[in-house]
């Protein structure tokens, strides 16, 4: 197997490359159109055939060129509700070589987020990176986010490795045990406390432009 992490230091966005070297089939998780030359070079370097392009979430409303750019990778696109990409449901299995990736529907950061489980690794996009997304600094659906994290992420085995889609001066990978115990927004919180915290984030987001205009 081959596993590679690409990090954009400016935005904090993370992309993951997985490959079965026996079959030469590969998967990209959360690639970005601006990185096409690098991604293509990585695939060519090991003579890999891209089997799937997987997106935990997307902001195509503010980045309308992204689907067209990713289409140049010439592999089936999997993402949440959209006019592009293949339709998948919770539990869909995506093969590449002798490997299998399982689709987990985890709304919250956006209304149609997906996560991807592979071996002992869980790629969860913006679910746990609550305020780190450069395109959306707060969850779109806090109630759904709470359910996705507490019912689908925190119920995984303690040693499961969690890979984020964004980071801000933080680690890209952690474990379920760590996040369940110490996550700043979820650990030790009730659902109502979490939602109140998210509401406060929204209020600060709304007030910030007003305060800047008054200065």
TrEMBL record:
Descriptive protein name: Glyoxalase II
An example molecular function term from Gene Ontology annotations: sulfur dioxygenase activity
Residues in coiled coil: none
GO biological process terms held by the UniProt record: glutathione metabolic process; hydrogen sulfide metabolic process
Organism of provenance: Rhodoferax antarcticus ANT.BR
Every Metallo-beta-lactamase domain range: 12-166
Gene3D superfamilies named in the record: Ribonuclease Z/Hydroxyacylglutathione hydrolase-like
Matches recorded under InterPro entries: Metallo-B-lactamas, Mito_Persulfide_Diox, RibonucZ/Hydroxyglut_hydro
């Amino acid at each position: 197997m081959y596993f590679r992490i690409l990090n954009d230091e400016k935005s904090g966005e993370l992309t993951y490359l997985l490959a079965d070297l026996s079959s030469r089939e590969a998967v990209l998780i959360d690639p970005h159109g601006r990185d096409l030359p690098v991604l293509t070079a990585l695939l060519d370097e090991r003579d890999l055939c891209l089997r799937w392009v997987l997106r935990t979430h997307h902001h195509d409303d503010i980045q309308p060129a992204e689907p067209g750019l990713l289409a140049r990778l010439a592999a089936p696109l999997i993402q949440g509700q959209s006019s592009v990409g293949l339709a998948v449901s919770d539990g869909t299995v995506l093969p590449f070589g002798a490997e299998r990736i399982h689709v987990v529907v985890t709304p919250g950061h956006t209304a149609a987020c997906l996560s991807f489980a592979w071996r002992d690794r869980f790629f969860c996009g913006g679910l746990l990176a609550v305020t780190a997304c450069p395109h959306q600094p707060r969850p779109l659906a806090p109630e759904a986010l709470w359910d996705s994290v507490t019912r689908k992420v925190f119920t995984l085995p303690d040693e499961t490795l969690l890979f984020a889609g964004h980071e801000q001066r933080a680690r890209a990978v952690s474990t379920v045990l760590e996040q369940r115990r110490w996550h700043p927004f979820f650990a030790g919180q009730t659902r109502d406390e979490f939602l109140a915290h998210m509401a406060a984030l929204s209020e600060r987001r709304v007030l910030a432009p007003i305060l800047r205009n008054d200065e």
